[in-house]
C-alpha cells in the first residue's frame, strides 16, 4: 500500500493547488476520483478557510457521502457543521444515511438540532425525528431507514427493477426484505438468490420465511451477537408487532464491537481509554476521579493496619510481607474479575447457575491459593529460617487469594444481576478492595501466632 | 425473538423424533429448512451416535455449509471430524470455504491433515495446501479463494452471466474483481454498480481502478483497520507483484476484532480469558503461571522492605502506609498501561514521537501524583496530627505514581519497538513492578526524615 500512499499524497498536493488556484473544475475532477474515505482524509487535513471553499465547490450530497464515512467518533464534526451555511448543513444532513445523521445530531444541543430539522426537507426531518427517539445502545439507535422492501406477489424480474431504482439510495441492496400490505416483515431474499433464479420465478416461491430479525429495543450487544452467530451483512429491525422499521448494517456492528471492547478494557483499567488526550493536564483530570476514590478506600486499609501498629512494632518482620500478600491477592482478584466479566458477556454461558459459578471460583481460589501459599511457605521458611513465619505467610496468602478470587467474580455477577454493566467493576477497584481483605486476614492470622515473632 | 425460540425448540424436538424413527425424508425436510446457524445448534446438541446418523442422511456439502458457520473457536470440531469416515470428512473439507477448512485443519496434527488432503479432490487439496503456508494472523491466513473475478473487456450482461454461474460457490458476490490476462488485480466493481448500469455498458468503462487491496503478508489487525476505515464488505488480497490471490470477508474480520479485543483484555488481566474452563483445577492451572512468576517479583519487594526492617521496627507507623502507596501507584500504572496499549493499537497515533509520549506521560504522572500526594498529605497530617509524616507520605506518593505512570507507558512502547505485542505487558506485571519501585521510593524518603518518626 506504499505506492498507493505516495500516489495519494501527490493527489492531495494537486487538490491543494487547485484550491489555491480557485480551479473548481480541476478540483471536482480530482476530488471525486478519490475513495470516500480518502476524501475524508483530505478534507480533515484542511484549514477552515479551505473547507469553506470546498462547500462552494461541492453539493450537499457530495459532502454527505463523505460525512457518512468520517462521522464515527470524530470530535470535530460539530465544528464542521457550524462552518456551513445552515441551509447547506441541513441539506447535507438530509442526504446522509439517517443513522449517521442521527448520530451527528445527537452530539449537538437540542436547539441546534431543532433548527436544522426545521429547515430540511420535510420527509428527511420526519425520518430523523423518528430515529432520534430511540434509546442509546439499542437496535433502534443504530438502525437506518434506507433499506429495500418489496411485496411477495411479483417476479424476480420486477423485483430487480425495483432494486435498480432504489440501489443508489439504499444503504445495502444485498438483502431485500419482503413485507405484506401492512408493512409486516414476512420474509427476506438475498440479492444472490435473485441473481441465481430465473426472471419469471415468483418472489413468493423463493423467499425465506424464516427471517431472523431484532426488535427495536434490543441491546446493541445482543444485535452484535446475532451478527456473529449468523454471519449476516444486515439485519432487519421490527417493532413489537413485527412491522419493519429499519435495518442494521455490519459496518455499524463493527463500531459497536469496538466500542464494547474499549469499554470493557476501560473498565478493567479504571480509566476511559477512548478519551485519550495529548494534553497531560486533561489526561490527569480523566484519571484522577478513580485514583482519588480508591485512595479513600486505600485509607481504610491503612487505618486497619494502624490498629495493628503495636504488633508491627514488636514484630517488624510482618511489615516485610504486607505488599507481597496484598499484591499477589490483587493479581488473583484481577484474573478472576476478567474471567467473570468475559463469561457474563458470552450470553450462552449465562445459564450456568450463580451458585455453581461462585462455588467454582472459590475452589479455583483455594487451589491457586494453596499452591501459591505452599510456594511462599517454602521460600520464607528457608530465607528467614523460620517455618512458623512461613506458615503464617502461606496460610494468609491462601485465604487472601481465595477471598480476592471470590470478590473478583462475585462483584461483577452481582452488578449484572442488579442490571448494571459488569464491566464497570474495575480492576483497580478489586485490587484496592482486596488490599483491605488481605491485610485483615494477614494480621488476624499473625496475631494468633504473635508470641512467635516478638523480637524476631 | 422469544416466539422464534419456541418455534425452534419445537422443530428441534421434531428432528429428534425423526432421527429416533429413522425417517430420513422427514429429517432432511425439517433440517434443511433451518438456518445454517440453527442447523449447527441442533447438531451440537446431539450425541455422537445421533451425529453419525446425520452423516448418513446428509451430503458432505450439506454438512460443510453448517461447518462453515460453527467452526469458529469450537473445541469439538476435531472430535466431529474423527467421527466421520475419512472419505466423507475429506469431501466435507473440500466443500467448505477454503479459509474455514484451513482453520480447521490447523487444529489437527500434521499427519491427519496430510491424510485428509491425500484423499480429497486434487483441486481442493491444492487450494488448501496453498493457504496452509501463510503465517498466523496475516491476511493470507484469513483469506479465502472463493471470489469472483472477470476481465474488463466485456459487457455488464456477460459479467452478470459469469456471476450467475459462480454465485453459489463464491463466498461473496457483492464485489467482482477485475483482472488482466496475468491475473493482476486492475480494478473492482460492486454488484450494486452492475445492477444500476445498463446491460450493454462495458465493464472497462465503469470499473473502479483505484482498488484498495491488502498484501498477503499484512498483519490481520491492519486488515481490520482498513475494513473499519472504508466500511467494505470484502477486500482483495494480492502478492507483492499485485497478483490477486484471494479475498478477506467482513465476517472473518469480526472474528479478528473479537480475538484482538480478547487478547488485549487477557493481557491487561494476566489471564487468558478465552481458555475459560468450568473445571476449577483447569482454571487454577491456567492462572498459576502468572501468579507464581509475579510472586517471585513480589519477593524482590519483600526483600527490599526486609532491608529497612530496622527502620520499621523503630517507626512502625511507616508500615501503615505501605499498601496505600503501592496500591495507589499500582492503580495509576494500570491506567497508564491501558492508555498506552490502546494508543499503540490505533495506528494513526503511532506517528507521535516516542519521546513526546514519554514526556507527556511523566507530566501526567506528576500532575496526578501531585494532586493525590497533596490529598494524602492533608489526610495524614490531620489523622495522625503529624505534618512531617504527611509530607513524607505525600512526596513518596507523588514520585511513586510518576514512576508507575512512566513504567506503565514505557514498557508497552518498548515491547512494541522490539516487535512484541504490547498487550502482553499485563496489568498485574505493572502493579507488581510498581510495588517494588514504590517501596524503594517510600523507604528512601522516609529514611531521610527518619529522626522524626523514631518512637512515634
UniProtKB/TrEMBL annotation, chains A, B:
Functional description taken from the UniProt entry: Acts as a magnesium transporter.
Name of this protein: Magnesium transporter MgtE
UniProt superkingdom: Bacteria
Organism: Enterococcus asini ATCC 700915
Residue spans crossing the bilayer: 288-305, 317-341, 362-383, 389-411, 423-443
Gene3D superfamilies for the chain: CBS-domain (3.10.580.10), MgtE N-terminal domain-like (1.25.60.10), SLC41 divalent cation transporters, integral membrane domain (1.10.357.20)
Complex formation: Homodimer.
GO MF annotations in UniProt: magnesium ion transmembrane transporter activity; metal ion binding
Gene Ontology, cellular component aspect: plasma membrane
Annotated ranges, domain CBS: 143-206, 207-263
Keywords from the UniProt entry: CBS domain, Cell membrane, Magnesium, Membrane, Metal-binding, Transmembrane, Transmembrane helix, Transport
Family recorded in the similarity comment: Belongs to the SLC41A transporter family.
Record membrane topology: Multi-pass membrane protein
Localization per record: Cell membrane; Membrane
CDD domains named in the record: CBS_pair_Mg_transporter
Amino acid at each position: 500500500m506504499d505506492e498507493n500512499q505516495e500516489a495519494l499524497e501527490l493527489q492531495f498536493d494537486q487538490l491543494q493547488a487547485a484550491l489555491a488556484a480557485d480551479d473548481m473544475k480541476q478540483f471536482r475532477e480530482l476530488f471525486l476520483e478519490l475513495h470516500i474515505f480518502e476524501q475524508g482524509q483530505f478534507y480533515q487535513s484542511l484549514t477552515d478557510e479551505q473547507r469553506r471553499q470546498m462547500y462552494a465547490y461541492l453539493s450537499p450530497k457530495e459532502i454527505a457521502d463523505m460525512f457518512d464515512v468520517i462521522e464515527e467518533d470524530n470530535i470535530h464534526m460539530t465544528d464542521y457543521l457550524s462552518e456551513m451555511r445552515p441551509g447547506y448543513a441541513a441539506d447535507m444532513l438530509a442526504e446522509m444515511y439517517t443513522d449517521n445523521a442521527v448520530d451527528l445530531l445527537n452530539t449537538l444541543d437540542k436547539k441546534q438540532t431543532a433548527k436544522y430539522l426545521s429547515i430540511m426537507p420535510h420527509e428527511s426531518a420526519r425520518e430523523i425525528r423518528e430515529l432520534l427517539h430511540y434509546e442509546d445502545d439499542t437496535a433502534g439507535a443504530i438502525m437506518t431507514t434506507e433499506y429495500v422492501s418489496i411485496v411477495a406477489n411479483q417476479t424476480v424480474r420486477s423485483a430487480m427493477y425495483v432494486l435498480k431504482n432504489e440501489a443508489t439510495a439504499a444503504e445495502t441492496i444485498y438483502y431485500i426484505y419482503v413485507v405484506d400490505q401492512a408493512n409486516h416483515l414476512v420474509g427476506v431474499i438475498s440479492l444472490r438468490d435473485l441473481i441465481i433464479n430465473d426472471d419469471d420465478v415468483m418472489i413468493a416461491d423463493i423467499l425465506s420465511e424464516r427471517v431472523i430479525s431484532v426488535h427495536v429495543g434490543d441491546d446493541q450487544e445482543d444485535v452484535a451477537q446475532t451478527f456473529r452467530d449468523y454471519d449476516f451483512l444486515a439485519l432487519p429491525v421490527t417493532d413489537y408487532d413485527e412491522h419493519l422499521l429499519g435495518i442494521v448494517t455490519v459496518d455499524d456492528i463493527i463500531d459497536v464491537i469496538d466500542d464494547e471492547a474499549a469499554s470493557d478494557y476501560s473498565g478493567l483499567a479504571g480509566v476511559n481509554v477512548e478519551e485519550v488526550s495529548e494534553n497531560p493536564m486533561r489526561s490527569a483530570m480523566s484519571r484522577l476521579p478513580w485514583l482519588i476514590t480508591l485512595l479513600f478506600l486505600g485509607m481504610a486499609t491503612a487505618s486497619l493496619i494502624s490498629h495493628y501498629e503495636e504488633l508491627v512494632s514488636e514484630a517488624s518482620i510482618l511489615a516485610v510481607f504486607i505488599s507481597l500478600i496484598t499484591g499477589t491477592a490483587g493479581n488473583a482478584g484481577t484474573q478472576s474479575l476478567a474471567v467473570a466479566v468475559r463469561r457474563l458477556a458470552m450470553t450462552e454461558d449465562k445459564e450456568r447457575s450463580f451458585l455453581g459459578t461462585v462455588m467454582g471460583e472459590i475452589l479455583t481460589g483455594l487451589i491457586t491459593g494453596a499452591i501459591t501459599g505452599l510456594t511462599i511457605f517454602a521460600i520464607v521458611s528457608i530465607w528467614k529460617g523460620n517455618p512458623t513465619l512461613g506458615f503464617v505467610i502461606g496460610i494468609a496468602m491462601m485465604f487472601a487469594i481465595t477471598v480476592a478470587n471470590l470478590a473478583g467474580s462475585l462483584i461483577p455477577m452481582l452488578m449484572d444481576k442488579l442490571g448494571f454493566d459488569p464491566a464497570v467493576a474495575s480492576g483497580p477497584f478489586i485490587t484496592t478492595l482486596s488490599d483491605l481483605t488481605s491485610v485483615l486476614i494477614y494480621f488476624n492470622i499473625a496475631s494468633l501466632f504473635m508470641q512467635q515473632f516478638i523480637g524476631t
